[in-house]
């Protein structure tokens, strides 16, 4: 993360004695990336974070099988038609994946068990509902439009208030703000479409009592359930540059040009082999002869996974795309507005767009999960030829 945070009680110096009220020592835990060579935070536990009493292998509760996008085709998935059984961890329905990222959808109203993803960071976009995110760092209250970014190795759980719909982005590494938005020292620059003030982080420690507490752990080798002797939510304080945070899509400030601006101006995060973009309501292009919707384009190096989360999609009118839809436009396929959309928008004299979408562009092909195939609109590929 680009700035330092301190929460709860910590000693004046790192790695010195920090005594509990009973005279014993709090236990340090360094959470660090890239082998002590990148961002880290130092957490102070009441109990040893290393004390486990049981370990058992766990079989996946949801399908992880994928198939190539063959024959090569643009796809339309209707998440409105998906059902999922489980919580915001176990109830994820896999839509698309490659070696860099997994994209899933979840609908749930039940709390998850404690969970630690040790394969990579996660970014969870809350489409509908509200949820309490609890972790060793503290609590974040999240709701509609929030991205919640969770660093690798963070023990956490999700506690919904009613039904929650969410898109889950699981990275093979770390998810960060784009480097071009930051100074060489990590501060957001003036041209960035959001800044530190827009990020919400835990504000105080979360202390939970408990013994023999199970935690589901995902690693590159599979799933394990570790049972901790004491509840891992026992951190009295922490500081550093590594922690979970929330960012609401409404706080993204779109860039506007005289003519149509390409998707990189909407970039919100970057991960290994992919980027995340936020499309928000904005003034349309204002050149007197502008074509105020996207031109046909062929991303020769990337697959485009677009989740439509709000507003009106005039450029795709007649395609079946609606709120809750996901389109997948693979490399090798040229895509763009629906036939007649350009002329219709120019004739209407539109000055603003109301569309909202979350896009993930990947630089390796996306395979299809069983969840995507279960909610696919089979006629979508031919909508440009009607």
TrEMBL record:
<protein>
    <submittedName>
        <fullName>Homogentisate 1,2-dioxygenase</fullName>
    </submittedName>
</protein>
<keyword id="KW-0560">Oxidoreductase</keyword>
<keyword id="KW-0223">Dioxygenase</keyword>
<dbReference type="InterPro" id="IPR005708">
    <property type="entry name" value="Homogentis_dOase"/>
</dbReference>
<feature type="domain" description="Homogentisate 1,2-dioxygenase C-terminal">
    <location>
        <begin position="289"/>
        <end position="375"/>
    </location>
</feature>
<dbReference type="InterPro" id="IPR046451">
    <property type="entry name" value="HgmA_C"/>
</dbReference>
<comment type="similarity">
    <text>Belongs to the homogentisate dioxygenase family.</text>
</comment>
<dbReference type="InterPro" id="IPR046452">
    <property type="entry name" value="HgmA_N"/>
</dbReference>
<dbReference type="Pfam" id="PF20510">
    <property type="entry name" value="HgmA_N"/>
</dbReference>
<dbReference type="Pfam" id="PF04209">
    <property type="entry name" value="HgmA_C"/>
</dbReference>
<dbReference type="InterPro" id="IPR014710">
    <property type="entry name" value="RmlC-like_jellyroll"/>
</dbReference>
<dbReference type="InterPro" id="IPR011051">
    <property type="entry name" value="RmlC_Cupin_sf"/>
</dbReference>
<keyword id="KW-0479">Metal-binding</keyword>
<feature type="domain" description="Homogentisate 1,2-dioxygenase N-terminal">
    <location>
        <begin position="23"/>
        <end position="248"/>
    </location>
</feature>
<keyword id="KW-0408">Iron</keyword>
């Amino acid at each position: 993360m680009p700035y330092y945070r301190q929460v709860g009680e910590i000693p004046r110096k790192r790695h010195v004695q920090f005594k509990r009220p009973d005279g014993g020592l709090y236990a340090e835990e360094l959470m660090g990336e890239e082998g002590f060579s990148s961002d880290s935070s130092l957490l102070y536990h009441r109990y040893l974070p290393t004390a486990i009493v049981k370990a058992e292998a766990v079989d996946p509760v949801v399908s992880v099988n994928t198939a190539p996008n063959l024959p090569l085709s643009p796809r339309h998935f209707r998440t409105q038609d998906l059902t999922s059984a489980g919580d915001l961890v176990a109830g994820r329905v896999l839509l698309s994946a490659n070696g860099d990222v997994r994209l899933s959808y979840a609908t749930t109203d039940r709390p998850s068990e404690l969970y630690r993803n040790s394969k990579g960071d996660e970014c969870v976009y809350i489409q509908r509902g509200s949820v309490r995110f609890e972790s060793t760092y503290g609590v974040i209250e999240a709701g509609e439009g929030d991205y919640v970014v969770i660093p690798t190795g963070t023990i956490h759980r999700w506690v919904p208030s009613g039904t929650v719909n969410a898109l889950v982005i699981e990275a093979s590494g770390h998810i960060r703000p784009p480097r071009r938005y930051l100074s060489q020292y990590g501060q957001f620059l003036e041209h960035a479409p959001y800044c530190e003030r827009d990020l919400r982080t835990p504000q105080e420690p979360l202390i939970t009592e408990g013994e023999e507490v199970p935690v589901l752990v995902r690693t590159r080798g599979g799933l394990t359930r570790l049972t901790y002797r004491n509840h891992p939510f026992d951190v009295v304080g922490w500081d550093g540059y590594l922690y979970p945070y929330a960012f609401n899509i409404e706080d993204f400030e779109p860039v506007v040009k005289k003519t149509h601006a390409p998707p990189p101006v909407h970039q919100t995060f970057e991960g290994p082999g992919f980027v995340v973009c936020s499309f928000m309501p904005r003034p349309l292009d204002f050149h007197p002869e502008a074509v105020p919707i996207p031109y046909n384009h062929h991303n020769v190096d990337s697959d485009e996974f677009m989740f439509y989360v709000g507003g009106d999609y005039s450029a795709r009118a007649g395609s079946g795309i609606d709120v809750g839809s996901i389109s997948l436009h693979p490399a090798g396929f040229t895509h763009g507005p629906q036939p007649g959309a350009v002329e219709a928008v120019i004739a209407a004299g539109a000055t603003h767009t109301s569309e909202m979408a979350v896009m993930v562009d990947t630089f390796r092909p996306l395979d299809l999960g069983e969840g995507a195939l279960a909610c696919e609109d089979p006629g979508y590929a031919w909508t440009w030829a009607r």
